[in-house]
Every structure is written in structure tokens, then in C-alpha cells.
Amino acid sequence: MPRPSMAELIHVDGMQVVRLSNAEASAEVYLYGAHVTSYVRRGVPKLFLSDLAALDGSAPIRGGIPVCFPQFGKRGPMAVQHGFARRVVWELGGALDAATPSVVLRLPPGEHADWDYRLGCLLKVALEVDGTLVCHMTVHNEESERACSFSTALHAYFCTPDIEKTRISGLQGTTYIDQLAGGAVVEEYPDKVEFLSEVDRIYSGVPSKIMIECGDNLVSELELETFCDAIVWNPHVEKSRGMADLPDDAWKGFVCVEPAVAVQPVVLGAGEHWAAILRIR
Fold it and tell me: Distance between CA atoms of 132 and 256, rounded to whole angstroms?
């Protein structure tokens, strides 16, 4: 018999985790960081999670889908990398929906260093009937009078059998900021992005579909709504050696393709909303 749809809140080593599943797929979402740590479709893991990832709330989780908010990297006023959202415990935004199955998580209000705006943020994580993973992000400027700007990314780590045979397609004709070349702006002309050395790029004006391929196999297909940028990253050999929460050779088994709004921040007037969606097929 097909596995019934399910959404349940469990505890793993003292951490709150929402487990979602249906007949086609399963996912796990930590309330710490509203962080999707696992997505398995038809028995195949789609997201990479480091064997050395901190899963106790002591540090941001390495792997899965971290939420970078209210800034990406250091492209904003905050001194902390990627903002504060991935470093706090989010709240349940309502009852779990076992029928969908889905969960809505809400960023709790609070004081944060270098940030004095009131932004509400919700992340809905759901599994569609065919096993597609959906991350629906909404942001609300809760200020009564002043506008607010932010940048964001869903810093997704995807499993791949061999990074040196992995290709990203769908980005031809776009431009990117090469963060390994002092921020030089480059036009992407090859059909596919390759990973023969470290890659750290912010693509702008990206299409609504991006494919991750390895050899002749489609690893994952991303569908984007509203996200206009995408970061493509792999640390390769040297940078991996300097990352305490990543095994030295783990770079061979993942690639980051991150839907984002990073090049030009979103500006919301008082009371305005913004929404974006990532679907992983």
C-alpha cells in the first residue's frame, strides 16, 4: 500500500524537527534556522548534509537548505555572514498539515545586531503529490512608516555523484559576478557550468528553470518564481580544507545552486509584502 501523507513534530537530540512524507518523498525541517536538512525522493537523497554539520543549535547547519536573511553574504549592513535567520529557532506558524503535507515556520521577532527594521518572514515547506519539494518564502515590512531593503537566498546544497562530471544548464546568456576575481562581471557563454576548480558566482537575471546534471543523468531541476538571481558554488579542494564542519573530500559530492535576490536588494514600503518560490523536481 502507498505510504500515507504525514507531517509530525519530533525531537532529535533535543532539537525540534518537522518530518514530512507522502508516497513519493520525505523531508525533514529543523526549527533551528527553518532549515531543510533532508529531502529524499523515491529513495534517493537529493540534498547534501555534511557529516560534520552542527545539529545542536551551536552553529549554522552545513548542508541542506539554509535560509540567508535579511542579507546574503555580507551584501548588507550586518557584520554576520548571511544574516541572522539561520541562527535562531523559528516558530510554528500554525498547525501542521498532514494532507499536503506541509509546515509553515515564522521568524520570531527580536533585537539583532546591526539590524533595526521590523521584517516578518514566513517559510512554508511542502511536498506536492508527485514528490516535488516546495519552499515558499514571504516577507512583510511591518514598519508603519519607513521602507526597508533586504537580500536573501535559499542556500541549497544538492547531492551529485561526481562534481567534476556535474554541469549546470539554463544559465547561458546571463551575467555573473565572479567572487573569486574581485567581483568582476562576466557574461556566461558556455552551454553549461563546469566544476574543474573552485566556483563562486552570483548570476543575475536567471531563468525560471535551472538543471543540475551529472553525466547523462538529470540530478535535479529547479523552478524559480520571483527569485531573479542564483548563486553557484563549490569550494573544491583548498577551501574545503579550511572548513571545520566539512570533511576534506566532501566537495566531490555536492554543488550549491541557490535561488536568491542578492545583486539588487528588495525594497519594501511600509506594510508591503514580497513572496518567492523554489520547487525542486
Answer: 18
